[in-house]
Amino acid sequence: AQTVTQSQPEMSVQEAETVTLSCTYDTSESDYYLFWYKQPPSRQMILVIRQEAYKQQNATENRFSVNFQKAAKSFSLKISDSQLGDAAMYFCALINAGNNRKLIWGLGTSLAVNP
Amino acid sequence: DGGITQSPKYLFRKEGQNVTLSCEQNLNHDAMYWYRQDPGQGLRLIYYSQIVNDFQKGDIAEGYSVSREKKESFPLTVTSAQKNPTAFYLCASGIRGRNYGYTFGSGTRLTVV
Questions:
Q1: What SS3 state is found at A84?
Q2: What is the H or E stretch that residue B45 is in?
Q3: What is the 3-state secondary structure (H, E, C) of A15-30?
Q4: Residues of B with CB below 8 A from A91's CB?
Q5: What is the pLDDT along chain A (115 residues), one digit of tens a residue?
Q6: pLDDT tens digits for B56-78?
Q7: Would you call B100 and A50 a contact, using CB atoms and an 8 Å cutoff?
Q8: Whether B88 and A43 lie within 8 Å, measured CB to CB
Q9: What is the pLDDT of residues B76-103, one digit of tens each?
């Protein structure tokens, strides 16, 4: 069975600082994709970043980057120059590239940004 | 602009009533999904559909029903058989066969009164 684990229920960061959110996963598939989603207080789920498992290069999107360690099955999210608008729940998710594709979700990390 | 529209934003249901949550998308996505979100439990999949007139149960389908008569629409009915329906419900869509991630609606908060 596939699982996604986020071991940090809550984290905080000072504005303009850098924070890293952890995610580990387990899958027996070799072809899969990993995602980080952000859910702000509005509760709209927003895709932050996406990583293909077959790519060694870590994905980046502006201030957001990942550290993808395939052998360790680790997929952490780094937020640089944190802004007040980054305060949200962050969810890590996994999808296998097979026919029965469903996102497997972690339980989320609540990030607070302190001014 | 393309996107997913969920309505209503807030919904109140009396005990024993069925209610239907609307989800409409104009993204031309084949696949659509319904999730339930409860505090501390993350997102749990209720039903999903990858093509019109076809849908599959997710992990917590009991007490829910869906239909997919049109590509754009995937309504969710919460029946009286659902014992604890108070939750936040999210609808999502995606491109079948592509792993670009899902697009989500803004959600419906259902409360049983």
A1: helix
A2: strand B42-51
A3: CCCCEEECCEEECCCC
A4: 42-43
A5: 789 999 999 999 999 999 999 999 999 888 899 999 999 998 999 999 999 999 889 999 999 999 999 999 999 999 999 999 999 999 999 998 765 568 899 999 999 999 9
A6: 999 999 999 999 999 999 999 99
A7: yes
A8: yes
A9: 999 988 889 999 999 999 987 767 788 9
Residue A86 DSSP code: G
Q: Which residue of A has its CA nearest to B46?
A: A102
Mutate to test the interface with A, among B30, B43, B60, B110 (most CBs of A within 10 A): B43
A75, A80, A82, A85: CA torsion to nearest 10? -60
Residue in this structure with the two tokens 């980080």, named with its chain if needed: A36
- Is B103 an interface residue toward A (CB < 8 Å)? yes
Indicate the length of chain B as a whole number.
Answer: 113
Bin B86: left if φ > 0, else alpha if -120 < ψ < 50, else beta: beta
Extract the tokens encoding A36.
Answer: 């980080």
Distance CA A44, CA B110 (A): 16
Residues 6 or more apart from A55 whose CB is under 8 A from it?
Answer: none
Residue of A nearest to B99 (CA): A33
